[in-house]
UniProtKB/TrEMBL annotation:
One Gene Ontology term from the biological process aspect of the record: response to blue light
Cellular location(s): Nucleus
SUPFAM superfamilies: F-box domain, Kelch motif
Lineage: Eukaryota, Viridiplantae, Streptophyta, Embryophyta, Tracheophyta
Keywords from the UniProt entry: Biological rhythms, Flavoprotein, FMN, Kelch repeat, Nucleus, Repeat
Pfam families: F-box-like (PF12937), Kelch_2 (PF07646), Kelch_KLHDC2_KLHL20_DRC7 (PF24681)
Domain F-box, chain residue ranges per copy: 13-50
Entry protein name: Putative adagio protein 3-like
Length: 417
């Protein structure tokens, strides 16, 4: 330590501190006054976050630093000391009413596409809720053309404004088409993308995005009711995007209603779903991971324990579930909650996992505020890296889309600590 302190402030900041995690920097700062002074510099704090979380994530979080300084934001996202539930009411309407739609966030906008209307009618309209507005209101987007109506599909966002729809159940059966829309275009138009051999038509599959431009699709159910276990990747930065199946020597049991969460740039965590188990289909509580950067990517099961803290009574792992919410935090940890759960377990109980740990442990989070009664993966959006918005829930068969529940991962105060 003494040798390090002989270095100049510039070398300490740029060559050493910027390469540590926010937690490590805080630990060193607590025992060294000089380093504590250095880490009060906002530029140094941002470098620390950028090194730990990547340039893309810190870019998304940039807007939050107008309200919270980088040091406080890093602390709150590390300790989760400020996490809480809030209930919001917004204006406008999504009509006709529907269920089984898919939603995602594009910047500070929530986007909803499709869904299942009355008498299982597939819907083909697009709605946007701008959270930056003084009075957020659902508005139908006037698009030049729409994909065929569908439900049980996925909707993802790439590069901040590009929306991608894949698969689902349409009027003529299951689909395997891809449509892309630039939400910021003067005249938004859904355009079909095709190239290579696409995945089989499916519904209730899972998808996630990686590196801002790649769509990963996994599992789901075919027209014949067969569960799938394949994994496909579509890189939309190419002039001619082409589907590519990820060949693996082993795959998790076939399933639908699971979650895929990207973390660590090129890694994916799969959790839960309704999985094939012999001749049965059972809710799963298992976790699997794959690194697509490997020369030969392979799925492997994560052996996850449960964290037992000082004074805690029981270590708890997430009960098996499907159609749940999985949120990747800026630091790569993943929060699981909601869905369809066997037994009397509460869907509002939050579970936290760091899949990059040598021995991953599930931790439970006790969150103050009013949680939603229901939370489903296809209708939950992550906004700005710090806000998780659950759309409504349902009363009987009707979805209440004017009620939103927000899981705040960081506070919105202006003062620094």
């Amino acid at each position: 330590m003494c040798g390090i302190l002989q270095l100049s402030d510039e070398v300490l900041a740029h060559n050493i501190l910027s390469r540590l995690t926010p937690r490590d920097v805080a630990s060193i700062g607590s025992v060294c006054r000089r380093i504590r002074q250095l880490t009060k510099n906002e530029h140094v704090r941002k470098m620390v976050c950028q090194n730990a979380w990547g340039a893309d994530v810190t870019g998304v979080l940039e807007h939050m630093t107008k309200k919270l300084a980088w040091g406080r934001l890093a602390r709150e996202l590390t300790t989760l000391e400020a996490v809480c539930w809030k209930k919001l009411t917004v204006r406008g309407a999504v009509e006709p009413s529907r269920c089984n739609f898919s939603a995602c966030a594009a910047g500070n906008r929530l986007v909803l596409f499709g869904g299942e209307g009355v008498n299982m009618q597939p819907m083909d309209d697009t709605f946007v809720l701008n959270l930056d507005a003084a009075n957020p209101e659902w508005r139908r987007v006037s698009v030049k053309s729409s994909p065929p109506g569908r439900w049980g599909h996925t909707l993802s966002c790439l590069n901040g404004s590009w929306l991608v729809v894949f698969g689902g159940c349409g009027r003529q059966g299951l689909l395997n088409d891809v449509f892309v829309l630039d939400l910021d275009a003067k005249q938004p138009t859904w355009k079909e993308v095709s190239g290579g051999t696409p995945p089989l038509p499916r519904s209730w599959h899972s998808s996630c995005t990686m590196e801002g431009s790649k769509l990963v699709v996994s599992g789901g159910c075919t027209d014949a009711g067969v569960l799938l276990s394949d994994t496909y990747l579509l890189d939309l930065t190419n002039d001619k995007p082409t589907w590519r199946e990820i060949p693996t020597t082993w795959a998790p049991p076939s399933r639908l209603g699971h979650s895929l969460s990207a973390y660590g740039k090129t890694k994916i965590l799969m959790f839960g779903g309704l999985a094939k188990s012999g001749h049965l289909r059972l809710r799963s509580g298992e976790s699997y991971t794959i690194d697509l950067e490997d020369e030969r990517p392979q799925w492997r099961q994560l052996e996850c324990g449960a964290f037992t803290g000082v004074g805690s009574q029981n270590a708890v792992v997430p009960p098996p579930r499907l159609d749940h919410v999985a949120v990747t935090m800026p630091c790569g940890r993943i929060i699981i909650f909601g869905g369809s759960i066997a037994g009397l377990h509460s869907p509002s109980q939050l579970f936290l996992l760091d899949p990059s740990e040598e021995k991953p442990l599930w931790r439970t989070l006790n969150v103050p505020g009013q949680p939603p009664k229901f939370a489903w993966g296809h209708s939950t959006c992550v906004v700005g890296g710090t806000r998780v918005l659950v759309l409504g829930g349902h009363t009987g068969e009707d979805w209440v889309l004017n009620e939103l529940y927000e899981l705040c991962l960081a506070s919105k105060q202006d003062s620094d600590a």
